[in-house]
Amino acid sequence: MHIARKFSRTLAGLVLFLPAAVATAEVVVIVSAKNPTASLTADQASDIFLSNSGSFPGGGQAVPVDQAEGSALRDEFYTRTSGKSPAQVKAFWSKMIFTGKGRPPKEVGDSLAVKKLVADNPNLIGYIDRNAVDASVKVVLTVR
After folding, report:
1. Could you tell me the pTM of the whole model?
2. Which residue ranges make up each domain of the chain?
3. Which of 135, 136, 125 is nearest to 28 (CA)?
4. 47-99 confidence digits (pLDDT tens)
5. C-alpha–C-alpha distance, residues 121 and 106, integer Å
6. Cα dist from 89 to 3, 13, 51, 76, 136, whole Å
7. Distance of CA 101 to the CA centre of its chain
8. What are the pLDDT digits (tens) for 39-48?
9. In CATH, what number does 25-142 get?
């Protein structure tokens, strides 16, 4: 019985710690280091990711890359830039697909996968955890 109680306490501690770890992730919008865009507003980023704009403010094609559906970073990105919940984003894309007016951004697994794709193509834009940023990409927006 002693072992079961100790395990329960350890598990409870981990469960309490997980939300804090997710909440400390800082979401940043990135482009390739080769992209001339210096900065974006939250509205501009939202417009690109929700197909209201297909180009960067200074010109040039902007192709968004999403994190996997259900990821905490994705949920935080859309909530903070567009004000849409995960369910609202899903409903938005369902309607766009059904009406033939748009297709959602390509989904990749995580921050490292997004960074690799974006770094290799100046037309791509994505969002990642700030801890994943390196010289291959440029931060154009810190999501707050």
Report:
1. 0.83
2. 25-142
3. 125
4. 999 999 999 998 999 999 999 999 999 999 999 999 999 999 999 999 999 99
5. 14
6. 44, 33, 12, 12, 29
7. 22
8. 999 999 999 9
9. 3.40.190.10
Q: Which amino acid belongs to residue 46?
A: S
CA separation for the pair 13, 96 (Å, rounded): 42
**Band of pLDDT at residue 2, cut at 50, 70 and 90:** low
Residues listed for the chain: 144
Half-sphere exposure of 94 (CA within 13 A, CB side): 6
Confidence of residue 3 (pLDDT cuts 50, 70, 90): low
Which residue, 105, 28, 107, is CA-closest to 63?
105
Which helix (H) or strand (E) element contains residue 58?
none
